[in-house]
Design goal:
12 helices; globular
């Protein structure tokens, strides 16, 4: 059995409090400035980000403009307090995304795409689970040199509303550009020339294996098997970046079972097969301590979906006894 270390209760309580505070403000945090233009004192709100935006709120003394400025200031005060909590948790050893990934997650959240059904999957999602299940996952440290650290994957519904994804990514990092293959009509990958971070977009399987156009986002998504199972019961968690970012990830029990399944779709000596099994094993073992009924119930429910499901899950679970 993998050696696991539980996260102290006081840190889990602090994290839980943070999840309750993040996103409660109805207006975004902004700094407020005032300057004289054409003889008028004007009020401006400046929003943080890789590309700072400044918005004119109105003239000084105007009741509505002053109310907006006050709301932005309150949100900024709340964000500062949350940022201190995030720093405390990270210094205590809780896991969070690296800076480049965190900026992308924040931009996606600010654009409302998580609310629209987009879900973070892959290694980045795995790194967010310790704070949810209450155990440090040792393979989180082992993955620091993994190639997947440079890839951020999002699963999107086939019908999702929003603005062009490339524009959203550029708010996190202006060097993001679309990567187009010869057959692409719309991009399904984006890459930062500054940080080398890649963003992939995938979706649920359908009748065709061809990329699915997401017209509102002006990109496409690659359909992958079992993706509908993975993301159908997504949960909201807070990524420890900045003042905290609410993101959608698969439930940890479905993530673990999905890893069992996809491990058997890879070549026998693929490093990714080992990584899939390692992540599945650690999540299953941790959840069997924290929530045994949840994880064992999910494994049995997945096995009951049919012979194919039962076979691949049983084969993958067999590796744990070796």
């Amino acid at each position: 059995m993998t050696s696991m270390k539980s996260i102290p209760l006081n840190l889990l309580t602090l994290y839980a409090d943070l999840t309750q505070r993040v996103g409660i403000d109805t207006v975004p945090a902004a700094s407020i400035s005032r300057r004289t233009v054409g003889g008028q004192r004007r009020i401006y709100a400046t929003f943080p980000g890789a590309v700072r935006r400044q918005v004119y709120l109105g003239t000084e003394g105007d009741e509505l403009a002053e109310a907006k400025a006050a709301a932005h200031r309150r949100a900024a005060d709340d964000a500062r307090a949350n940022r201190k909590t995030v720093t405390t948790l990270k210094r205590a050893g809780l896991s969070g995304p690296n800076a480049a990934t965190g900026r992308v997650l924040a931009a996606i959240a600010d654009a409302g795409l998580f609310d629209a059904g987009m879900v973070v999957i892959g290694t980045v999602a795995f790194q967010l689970y310790p704070n949810v299940i209450g155990f440090h996952l040792s393979s989180s440290a082992l993955l620091t040199q993994d190639i997947d650290q440079s890839v951020l994957r999002f699963a999107a519904p086939r019908a999702v509303d929003g603005e062009p994804l490339e524009e959203i990514l550029k708010r996190a990092d202006p060097s993001f550009t679309a990567l187009m293959s010869r057959d692409d009509k719309l991009p399904k990958k984006f890459r930062s020339t500054e940080t080398k971070l890649e963003v992939d977009v995938v979706t649920t399987p359908g009748r065709s294996a061809q990329p699915v156009p997401l017209k509102a986002l002006q990109c496409s998504a690659e359909p992958l098997p079992y993706m509908d199972y993975l993301i159908s019961e997504a949960i909201s968690v807070v990524a420890l970046h900045g003042p905290g970012v609410h993101v959608q990830v698969p439930s940890p029990e479905r993530f673990a079972v999905h890893k069992l399944i996809v491990s058997q779709l890879r070549p026998g000596r693929s490093p990714k097969r080992f990584k899939d099994l390692q992540q599945a094993r650690e999540l299953i073992e941790a959840m069997r301590v924290a929530e045994p009924d949840v994880i064992d119930g999910e494994i049995e429910a997945a096995r009951a979906r049919g012979t194919k499901w039962r076979k691949v899950i049983d084969v993958a679970m067999g590796y744990f006894a070796r």
